[in-house]
Design brief:
- It is built from 11 helices and 14 strands.
- By secondary structure, it is of the alpha/beta class.
- The protein has 3 domains: 52 residues, no CATH class; 190 residues, Vaccinia Virus protein VP39 (Rossmann fold, 3-Layer(aba) Sandwich), CATH 3.40.50; 91 residues, no CATH class.
- Strands 1, 2, 3, 4, 5, 6, 7, 8 and 9 form a 9-stranded mixed β-sheet that branches. It has a 5-stranded antiparallel β-sheet with strand order 10-11-13-14-12.
- A hairpin with a 3-residue loop joins strand 13 and strand 14.
- Helix 5 crosses helix 6 and helix 6 packs parallel to helix 7.
- The protein is globular and about 55 Å long.
Length: 407
C-alpha cells in the first residue's frame, strides 16, 4: 500500500484518471496536486490488474519536451524559500479576481507573490500596487529593479496596518508556522471590508505540515478571518528548477511542468482583532551567487574547516523540511545540490568538510546554469501548455546568465 495520507483517495483518483490520461505527464497534472512519486507508487500498485497503469508507469523515466516557464527578470527560486510561482494562466485569473474585488480605484497588495506583482506592473494596472516581502531577498530586489517606478515596496515583517489595500493576495509556503504570520500580515494590510485571496494546498497535496492552512475555509479564526470560502477552480504552479532536479533524481523525467495544483480561499477583513504570529527565524544561512545562480552557506560561530577532500555536492531527494538538519547541510544551491558535514566513524563530534575553492563553486554554478537552460523555458508561449499537452517548448533562447566567477 502507498505510504502517506489519503492513500486510498489517491489510488481511486489514479484509477479514475487512467481512463482519460494519455501519458504519464497528463496524469501527473490531473491528480489534485498529488506528488508525482506517489502517483508512480499508485501506478505500481495498480499495474498487476491494469495494463494502462503499466503503460503510464513505463513512461515516467522518458525524456519529456515540456518545460516550465520562468521569467528571466526574477532569480530562480531557492529551495530553502519553498517558493513556487503560479502559471501565467493562473496569474491572469488571480489578477482578474483582485481587480474585481478592489474595484477601479482600489489599492492592491501582493504578499510574497512576485510573479503576480510583476504581471500587474507589466499590464499597466491602473490601481496602486504594493508589494510586501523580505526586503533583503534577492527576488524582491530583482522585482524592485524591474518595476520600482510602478510599485511600492514594504517589509513584510513591519506593521502593515497603514497600507489600507482594497484587495490582497498571499501565497505562503505550505508550512503553518510560515503561513500564520504571512496570512495575518496580509489581512492586516487591508482596509476594513477589504478582500483577501489565500493560496492553499490541493486535496491530495499531502501537506501534513500545514493542517491549519489547508482547513482555512472551514476554520479561518486562527488567521483572524471571520468567514472564508473556497472559490472554484485550481491554482497551477510552474515547477521550479530545484524541484525538477529532485524529480529527475527520483527517476521521474516525464512530469508535467504544471503538475502542482492548489486552491484559492476568499475572506474579508472584519472588525474582529487580528492575532499576532511571529515569523520563524533562521539566521544561520547567508546567500552568495551571481545572477540567477544562488547558493546558501550555513553560518556557524567558532568553527574551523577541516579535512582535505574536495566538497561533494549531491542532489537532495526531497524539498521538505522533514529531515532537514539531520545531515547538517552546509551548502545549498538553487538546483537543490547540497554539501553536508562529514561525520567521523567512531566517537567524536562531526566535523565540517574543507571549505570549497572558488573554482569548485564556479564548476557547480556552470553545471546548474547549463541545466537551467535545458530544463526551464524563458519565453512565454501564446497559450497555456495545458491547452495542448503535446506542444514542445524547445524554443532556442539567447544566453541568459552571466558566467562571472563566484567569489
Amino acid at each position: 500500500m502507498i505510504d502517506g495520507c489519503n492513500s486510498g483517495d489517491l489510488l481511486e483518483m489514479v484509477r479514475r484518471q487512467l481512463a482519460s490520461a494519455n501519458s504519464f505527464s497528463s496524469l501527473t497534472a490531473s491528480c489534485d496536486g498529488a506528488f508525482p512519486a506517489k502517483i508512480a507508487e499508485a501506478l505500481y500498485h495498480l499495474s498487476p490488474k491494469m495494463a494502462s497503469a503499466c503503460e503510464r508507469l513505463a513512461e515516467a523515466d522518458r525524456p519529456h519536451p515540456l518545460r516550465p516557464f520562468s521569467d528571466r527578470r526574477l532569480p530562480l527560486p531557492h529551495p530553502l524559500d519553498f517558493e513556487w510561482r503560479f502559471s501565467n494562466a493562473t496569474i491572469d485569473e488571480l489578477l482578474r479576481r483582485l481587480n474585481s474585488i478592489a474595484g477601479p480605484r482600489g489599492k492592491l497588495l501582493f504578499v510574497c507573490t512576485p510573479a503576480v506583482a510583476l504581471r500587474a506592473a507589466d499590464t499597466n494596472n491602473p490601481r496602486r500596487l504594493v508589494y510586501a516581502s523580505r526586503m533583503d531577498d534577492p527576488v524582491t530586489l530583482s522585482l524592485w529593479r524591474a518595476c520600482r517606478d510602478r510599485m511600492q515596496f514594504i517589509e513584510v515583517r513591519d506593521d502593515l496596518s497603514h497600507v489600507g489595500a482594497a484587495a490582497a493576495l498571499v501565497d505562503s509556503p505550505w508550512y503553518d508556522d510560515i503561513a500564520l504570520p504571512l496570512v495575518t500580515q496580509a489581512l492586516r494590510g487591508l482596509e476594513h471590508g477589504g478582500g483577501l485571496l489565500v493560496g492553499i494546498p490541493d486535496r491530495l497535496s499531502g501537506c501534513n505540515s500545514a493542517p491549519m492552512l489547508s482547513s482555512i475555509a472551514t476554520d479561518p479564526s486562527v488567521f483572524g478571518i471571520e468567514c472564508a470560502r473556497a472559490l472554484p477552480g485550481k491554482l497551477r504552479y510552474e515547477t521550479p528548477y530545484f524541484e525538477l532536479n529532485t524529480l529527475r533524481r527520483l527517476g521521474l523525467y516525464s512530469v508535467h511542468p504544471q503538475w502542482r495544483t492548489g486552491r484559492v480561499v476568499f475572506g474579508r477583513r472584519a472588525q474582529n482583532p487580528i492575532p499576532q504570529h511571529r515569523f520563524p527565524g533562521d539566521g544561520s544561512w547567508c546567500e552568495v551567487g551571481e545572477g540567477s545562480w544562488r547558493v546558501r552557506l550555513r553560518r556557524r560561530e567558532n568553527d574551523q574547516w577541516v579535512g582535505s577532500d574536495l566538497v561533494r555536492f549531491d542532489i537532495r531527494e526531497s524539498i521538505s523540511r522533514r529531515g532537514m538538519g539531520e545531515n547538517a547541510e552546509e551548502y545549498w544551491t538553487v538546483g537543490n545540490r547540497v554539501a553536508y558535514v562529514s561525520v567521523r566513524s567512531g566517537p567524536g563530534p562531526a566535523v565540517r568538510p574543507k571549505a570549497p575553492e572558488a573554482s569548485t563553486l564556479r564548476e557547480i554554478a556552470q553545471i546548474e546554469l547549463n541545466e537551467a537552460r535545458r530544463l526551464v523555458a524563458y519565453r512565454e508561449l501564446p497559450k497555456n501548455v495545458l491547452e495542448n499537452p503535446q506542444v514542445a517548448l524547445c524554443i532556442r533562447e539567447p544566453p541568459i546568465y552571466s558566467v562571472t566567477a563566484v567569489n
